[in-house]
Amino acid sequence: MTTTLDAARTKRLVALLVGSAFVVILNETIMSVALPELMREFDVAATTAQWLTTAFLLTMAIVIPVTGFLLTRFPLRRVFVAAMGSFSAGTVVAALAPTFPLLVTGRVVQAIGTALMMPLLITTILNVVEPERRGRMMGTISIVISVAPAIGPTVSGLVLDSLSWRWMFWLVLPIALVALGLGASWVRNVTEPRRVPVDVASVVLSALAFGGLIYGLSSIGESAAGEVPLAPWIPLSVGAAALVAFVVRQLTLKDRALLDLRAFTVPSFSIAVTLVAVSMMALFGTLILLPLFLQDVLGLTTLQTGLVLLPGGLAMGLLAPVVGRVFDRVGPRPLVAPGAAVTSAALWGMTTLDAASGRPAVVGLHVLMSIGLALMFTPLLTSALGSLPQQLYSHGSAIVSTLQQVAGAAGTALFITVMTRGIASGTGAGASVVDATADGIHTALMYGGAISAAAVLVALLVRRPADSQPTTGAGEPEHGTDRVVVGAPGAPR
């Protein structure tokens, strides 16, 4: 069956999905700045308060791998309503929560909707947008993936400067409800649902694998500070063993797999996904380290910290659509290779920051890193997903979203662990807390620089998907674009 959408309806649908995804992804990092206030109000320790983030990440890690099956089995409209309905319900619960456990429950319900939204957005884009125009559309998606988490702390800092933490939920709720209402009317079922059975064993193994890895990685930093209830090696071991079993089972099930891993047999997909994972490690690692540097070393407030990091987020958001249009013309390598080099240069530049550094130096380096990441995200996502056959779109988007979460947790764990040990070593040697913190952050950023340098070499292997050819004229395809046809001859097979 071929589904057609006129250009105006396609733009309206994409705008709705992008706006909805931006709101739910923004919510992923919005609570980090509010943790001290929540600790005081609910009288909980730092390790307990951290569960607001840990529980959110765990839920995402468990639900995202299942989305490949859900998007294959159910119509897109039903999945969208479930996603935004869950997010809205969780937002209400969190805003009204009289106790800390209920607040965590609200965050978990929110995370279910967040986990569904990103694969749904990518799958829809791949089905309704012609291959030669996907670059600019993926540029828009890059705003959601990279900018929303980056400006989360800024938004929360602005809200907390004059309002209660509950307003971080009340301000989001009307937007979520409007998106839910519009989506119930606008979202069209542009895919062909197939009645595929769910493999319960795969679901259990997936939960153990990705949940164990995310929890273990998230707790490494706390373990370095001696503040974790369970040794990280336990969930990491369980997660690794379950992951091996999960991979073996998916390869055995083939067409009935919960998450079809045959996508990795496409070289363009594997290379691009590897670089996306490295980029997310750098992004989430610096999202943790730079606020700590600004507050603990330079002595800035949370609001000032958010404003210092805002230009980088804006630069990434403004550049992403431009990069998408350029990608449609020249392909990925002319963008990804320079982007990887710029990102690496920025990370190495950050290793020079110390207590004497001024805010302009931090802003400049963060903006430089944001530009490098913007040059990478859009071409990599488009190359990865555009290289897959149509029947693997939903599974490919689920794989990308899952690896983003794991890579983000791994980057955070690596940077925090190295920093914590560096601080402990510095204070033990008699240095002041400020100097020891600066030295710890310096060491952690050197690890990030080393990883990013390796990514520069891998970036040279990126290729344009075979079905996504350069366009002519002002970035427009050679044939007309008045109608978008799902399953048209130009679509990947």
Outline:
The chain has about 500 residues and is mainly alpha-helical. It is built from 17 helices and two strands. Mean pLDDT is about 80; it is low at about 465-493.
Unreliable stretches (pLDDT < 50, length at least 5) are 467-493
Overall average residue pLDDT: 80
**Rg estimate, integer Å:** 22 Å
Number of strands: 2
Spatial strand sequence of the major β-sheet: 1-2
Beta percentage is: under 5%
Major sheet, described briefly? 2 strands, antiparallel
Shape: globular
Quaternary structure type: single chain
Number of helices: 17
The structural class is mainly alpha
Distance between the termini: 15 Å
What's the helical proportion of residues? over 70%
Order of H and E elements: EHHHHHHHHHHHHHHHHHE
List its traits.
single chain, 493 residues, mainly alpha, two-stranded antiparallel sheet, 17 helices, 2 strands
Give your account of this protein's structure.
The longest helix has 36 residues, at 393-428. The chain has 493 residues and is mostly helical. Helix 5 packs antiparallel against helix 6 and helix 14 packs antiparallel against helix 15. The radius of gyration is 22 Å and the shape is globular. 75% of the residues lie in helices and 2% in strands. The protein has 17 helices and 2 strands. The protein starts with a strand and ends in a 7-residue tail after the last strand.
